[in-house]
Specification:
The structure is a single chain. This protein has helices spanning 52-61, 63-68, 74-86; strands at residues 7-9, 16-18, 23-27, 33-36, 44-48. By secondary structure, the protein is of the alpha+beta class. Strand 1 and strand 2 (16-18) form a beta hairpin. The radius of gyration is 13 Å and the shape is globular. The chain binds zinc ion.
Length: 91
């Protein structure tokens, strides 16, 4: 029997996709929002395709704000965008 693949909905395009193909965005208990490439960070998570277009859609539809029940500062969006475009390189 094939293992059931966990599916999650992208907050951008609203499509259900295998969890593995999505990037997890997490809001830590301290309230810091970041991309969670390993899916291991504690906190409340939301999922988005690794595609800047989906991030833009999520931004427009406020999908992440709704998922986190909190406003996301512009800086966080910029960071997410930069991380998505540049992979996991830091500085
Ligand atoms: Zn998407």
């Amino acid at each position: 029997m094939p293992k059931k693949i966990p599916m999650r909905q992208c907050v951008g395009c609203r499509e259900m996709k295998p969890k593995k193909e999505l990037i997890r965005v997490v809001r830590s208990p301290e309230g810091a929002v970041s991309l969670d490439f390993r899916g291991k960070l504690p906190g409340r998570g939301a999922y988005v395709c690794p595609d800047p277009a989906c991030l833009a859609k999520a931004r427009k539809s406020r999908g992440l704000e709704r998922a986190f029940d909190a406003a996301l500062p512009a800086q966080v969006w910029d960071d997410l965008e930069a991380q998505m475009k540049g992979g996991d390189q830091n500085g």
